[in-house]
Amino acid sequence: RIYSEIFCNNDSIVCFCPLKIISVSPNFGPSTGNTILSIIGSALKEFPNLSVRFDFEGYSKEVKANFDKLSKTIFVKTPNFIDIAPNLTLPAKAKIWVTLDGVNSKD
């Protein structure tokens, strides 16, 4: 792990390891969705509100994700982009954000 900050005083040390996305696979899929993405990174854990937000062409869709403890990987199924944005320009590029708590996101 890479620690971004280390705090210490006379009797304790606290190390902070931020959430970081290392890879997303596959990096393409159909605009109709249902592609299962695997997301690998640091500080990933299982949380009740684990989700992935897809931002594309001014639209946003958040999808519940699953965490595999054995591989320490997040899995999420892509939404149907055409249902959300019928006039979507193809090919479309989406930015993804991971949130462990349902509030704070990391791209």
SSE-based structural type: mainly beta
Q: What is the ordering of alpha helices and beta strands?
A: EEEEEEEEHEE
- Choose one word for the global shape: elongated
Strand order of the largest sheet: 3-4-8-7
**Average pLDDT for all residues:** 86
Rg result? 16 Å
List unreliable stretches of 5+ residues: none
- The percent range for strand residues is 35-45%
Topology of this protein?
Elements: E1 5-8, E2 13-16, E3 20-25, E4 36-42, E5 51-56, E6 59-64, E7 66-68, E8 73-77, H1 81-84, E9 95-99, E10 105-106
Antiparallel strand pairs: 1-2, 3-4, 4-8, 5-6, 5-9, 7-8, 9-10
Verbal overview:
With 107 residues, the protein is mostly beta strands. It is built from one helix and ten strands; from the N terminus they run E-E-E-E-E-E-E-E-H-E-E. Strands 3-4-8-7 form a four-stranded antiparallel beta sheet, with no helix packed on it.
Q: How would you briefly describe this protein structure?
A:
The protein is mainly beta and 107 residues long.
List keywords for this structure.
107 residues; four-stranded antiparallel β-sheet; elongated
